[in-house]
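Think of the structure tokens as a kind of shorthand, similar to the way a musician reads notation: each symbol stands for something richer, in this case the local conformation of the backbone. In the example below we present two proteins back to back. Begin with the first one, reading the sequence and then the tokens, and try to describe in your own words what changes along the chain.
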Amino acid sequence: MNSSWNTLIDPDELFSQLEHTDLVIIDCRFSLADSESGRNQFSDNHIPGARYAHLEDDLSGTIVAGSTGRHPLPSSSAAQNVFRDLGVNNHSQVVTYDDFGGAFAARAWWMLHWLGHDHVAVLNGGWPAWIEAGYPQDSSPGKTEPGAFVCNPRPDLLISSLQIDSVAQDPGRLLIDARSHERFLGIGETMDPVAGHIPGARSCYFGDNLESSGSFLKKNVLRARWKELLQSFPASDVVSYCGSGVTGAHNVLAIRYAGLGDVPLYVGSWSEWITRRERAVATGPENDHD
């Protein structure tokens, strides 16, 4: 493979690479309302050669009541084994996709990036863009040869529950919240038992990274948007979070694609933050940037 992609890849670029043996395509379609819908959709139709990764079964660890968020990060060794089972080798070009603007595909993208695998990209526009372009579909389960991926985790890309308390109180750090503006404000919370946001956080809804088609904004537009939102904070001093560490990865991807650097992710996110009653909760328009 003469080229490599590490943020986004367009459908025409992916189509041109379908015959490469180093290519691994991972279908990440998922619905929080119906956890089996993505797997069922994959069985019906998918990009030729794709393998399926389930958000809860493959891309999350074990939930511990009163301790973890809704989609905790698996250990690096467990995640390594998941990607090996999906056929990933250290030289693989991995492409992830979904049908929700890249929200779930970005989780797999971020996990591989965290594990030290740089040749991984999200399909820009996802499954809808692939279908719109008229590219081939497949319904066969196919065979996946196990890979031999050896991870080399990057701890600088991860903010743990042990670190988040000090980060939240540090005026030299910026927390960005990828959830909807309404959930940030504490309005209409349906996913978690406590509404609001981490005090001092800035609302940066992940959906605003996208055009109406579901593809990412053009790079120059995205760069201008994030430079304004981050102001003078360098990416290394920013921490992204969301409800459970999924759409927060979408903002990490957008910032990296915009050329502004790597932002660490608080994977536990809001659903983990609220497991400890002593942690402060804010509601209302504090630092809300619509």
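Once you have a description of the first chain, move to the second and do the same.
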Amino acid sequence: MFADLVLVDGNVITMDSSKPTAQALAIKKDRIVKVGTNNQINSLVGNSTKVINLQGKSVVPGFIDSHIHVADFGKFLTWLDLTAVTSIKELQAKLREHAQNIPKNRWIIGNGWDQACFAEKRYPDLHDLNEASPDNPVILYHQCGRVCVVNSKALDLAGVTNKTFSPLGGTLEKDPKTGELTGILRENATDLVWKTIPEPSNQELIESASLACKKIVASGITSIHWIVSSANEIKVIQSLASQNKLPLRVHIIAPATLLNQLDSLNSLLGSGDNSTRLLGFKIFVDGSLAARTAALTQPYLDQQSTTGQLLYSQEELDSLVAKAHKAHLGLVIHAMGDKAINMALTAIEKVLMDKPKTNHRYRIEHASVLNKELISRIKKLGMIISIQPKCALSEFLVWSAVERLGNSRARLLYPLKTLVNEGIRIIGGSDCPMEPLSPLLGMQAAVTRPFFPEEQLTVDEALRMYTINAAYASCDDAIKGSIEEGKLADLAVLSGDPRTSASSKIGEIKVAMTLVSGKVVYQNLP
């Protein structure tokens, strides 16, 4: 038997403990058929075998992003890019140029500005935006995501005036002298305008999601856990699949609101295959730390009047979890605060006691504010913890976690090393577009976190989050997540070795090639 494709002269990082490294590998159809030395692989080279000399580049199992909002990312890619803007005057020029090329009244959405990089050293305001684009509603997001500036037309369409109250967990900024709105909206207040923006058409969603998928595989990602918001978004995935516009494997995580539509979902998805299937349902127990809506057992240190917000009673959550468990569906439970995590674990404990299920692979999303007792219960239940390392870093750098929680609670905020040492399986994701897509940047964040550095992971531990651990979470560890004979040929070729690169430079490693089922879906080779 000759291989269809062989990769030689490489640094193969297998994530297989029985053979941690290799020099080359061979692929037949969609499977890895041999992992070994150049000499061992050369025996599988025939006249029709394609040979790629890696020239020392590293090969890792294809990355798996276990938490990504693809539809939102696709929309984000169509936005006005303001990341390189260095002044408000330049921002206005880009906005004015963009407005001249689209119809009046069409929304302009932008992202990436940072007042610290502006020559004026101030936030842009609605007057700046009005001057550049008086005829189009405008919303421009700060690089941190939960702050934006809007113009007067956007405020008018949203029905927001200087008499509008700031929502819970958000701020409508006003001029301290005049009481007039400045156009700056923070955290939950951004939703007041965002919800006014018309939804794109299905064709626009398909086109933007297709663009997002191309960007995703260019980051070395071969599988995603796609967080969807509606049944319509699942139809978009189905359309992409039927049009051969899905260059990677898609595991769908549907909202719990669709649990009652399971029959129609199954009909929509069919039986599913290895490339596109329903993974489970996401249940939100609480909100976020950034908005102080994550549910805590004790008040926020910087706002003693609140302990966050629970979205279900314990009884309601128990019922929802039991329904999914009885139907043998995957469970993805969003719980950030310790009170919410306790509720989630209580619900899981009840269903497993009533109807035991071994190897359930249920997971808690974020599991941010932990303590020793919660960690012990997580371990006992065999729960998976889904973490987005860049988000964890943002909690400290952007949202002032220590000031909000106090030092003792912040000490066990995303305690990655503690969880690993307890034998708890952690999986990695990006939460893109809220944070950068790159798994390598996520790994770098996990390895270099400056806050409570005793919780830093090793490179190998961080790499496992995005490969074999994530494959385990979707019950696919027998067929992917490591480079072994018989497994799917889902691979990422990297310009450098993350294990030997400076830890602060891991995110600078380039993806040279991505393969899914042995086919090259992205390539950036000289």
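Compare your description with these statements about the second chain. Residues 70-194 form a domain with the Diaminopimelate Epimerase; Chain A, domain 1 fold (CATH 3.10.310.70).
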